[in-house]
Fold this protein.
Amino acid sequence: MASTALVRRGAATGRAAVFLSHTGNWVFLIPTLFFFIGWQVYPIFRVLWMSFTDYHFLRREPAQWVGFLNYTNALADPLLLTGLLRAVTFTALFLPGMIFVPMLLAIMVDRVSHPTLATTYRLILLIPAVIPGPLIFVLWKWLYNFNIGPIDYLLIQTGVVTQQTAPQWLGNPSLVLPAIALMEVWWGLGYHTMFYLAGLAAIPKELFEAARVDGANELSLFWHITLPRLRPILLVLVVLRFGTAMAVIDEYLILGGFNRALPTYTWTVYMWDEAFQIGDWFQGYAAAIGWIGAATMLVVVAGLFWVFRNRD
Amino acid sequence: MATGELIELRAGVVPAPRPKRVKIGTIVRHVVLVGFMLIILVPLAWVLLLSIKSIPDAYRPGFWPEQFDFSHYSYAINNIPTLARNMLNSVLVTTCTVVLTTICAVLGGYALVHLTLKGRAVVLALLVASLFFPTRVTSLIAIFETQRALGLINTTVGLILPYVTLNLALSVFIMRGIFEQISHELVDAAKIDGAGAWRTLFSVLLPLTRNGIVVVIIVNFVTAWGEYLLGVTLTNDQEVRTLPVVLAGAFGGMGQWAWPRIAAVYVMAIAPGMAAFALTQRWYMRGLQEGALKY
């Protein structure tokens, strides 16, 4: 009672003062906006501007405006088109494992009723999530190693392959993308499982009980209760992971290098190579490659939103 | 929809008490789960074991060494010339990044939830958009240009500025989710008691958001500690580089870079994250439950 009166009195102060105090609130956002605009928003538009110039980093002459020349050249460049196709291939290899394996795992972990066991499973699942990505890639580069890696050793021991036929996971063009996709699934296993567990925890358990009483089997429980309830999480995961999968670069630089014959030489590696390594660093062209890759991604992300749109 | 029908069905039927016995399904589930746990743990056990194998054992196939050798850790620190420096660089860059990002996220998340802001929607839309755009790759060329203009190319400290943005949007969203769990009545009550926006944040809300802050710190620690792309692009000399960049360039050979020695470096590189997580996991898990995952 007393508080309402006080709130009213607060609201009665002059409009100008209210406006001023609201402007002052922006102070709280200054640190965020400083970094966000300075190192994310501005660079993206700066790169967009660069993509319309013939900017070579190592040349003395100032950059000239060339219009859409970089874009027309890039779109006719087989290396870029192959690079985009390779990124799509990787995404297709990686997304199903990334979406469905953690979902299954989460459903299983969610059913564990023993509290200690449930916590232990969750903690172990989160271990890869607290190892930074690039260090995961270094580890798997060693795991896949032909000489000392344990994967080939296991395969030889179990008689799947012999010393002579043991696969070179990262050197073989048809194996390297699946190998990297497998590594990504391993890395994201815990993190994505936690996402699903959060979603599963929000489903009332009575729904399952009621459906079981009604004679529903596990499959129809999954199909009619779990899956529809997990759809918002599914959407976030698919879109976020699609973005990361299309724009993967660290993995390719660490595990693949700059061998153009390998499928790891995608548009991102091509952009990096062109901007910081080849010739006199034709950054104008590299910028165009970067924006073409980003635009391709945005189109598909928009498509995904359309596919997952709320039909209710 | 189906769920609605099910609720109606339930109203009429009282579920029978289920007999308490271990079902085959439960056993199969635990076997599968333990299998997954092994898939996660075995690669890590392998690298840990590699770091304490004697050198001949390391180059011989097989998991269990015939002879252990625990000297690789001290050898790596003393004999890989830049290693101590690289570790210090990583600590410096990570600490500054985590502190700055956490400050940004707390202030930003608070303002976006509990303060009146004209134009809040614009900020939110920009932050969301940045999550769906391959910012890290596309902005790289211009970040290089900016850093060069600021004279920060090939310096360790220079890395902090772009590192802050790596998880900035995500961190702001995490804190926003956490602040949304706090009732507006509490904030209003503080206002009525005469606390300004800053006092409200620091003395009333901050203690309530501890778990969320732990999540933000861990997420940013992991990203900054292991960052590779910016590190390899913006620095050149091995002594200014961070640990992961050096480690990614290292390849098992002879001498300093013999396999068990770089495995020891690797274990030292992933240990801080594991330790930090082990120490804070209680708050981390609670933070996740309190809304850190609901952005």
In short: Chain B has one domain: 80-292. Confidence is low (pLDDT under 50) at residues 1-13 of chain B. Chain B touches chain A through 105 residues (CB under 8 Å).
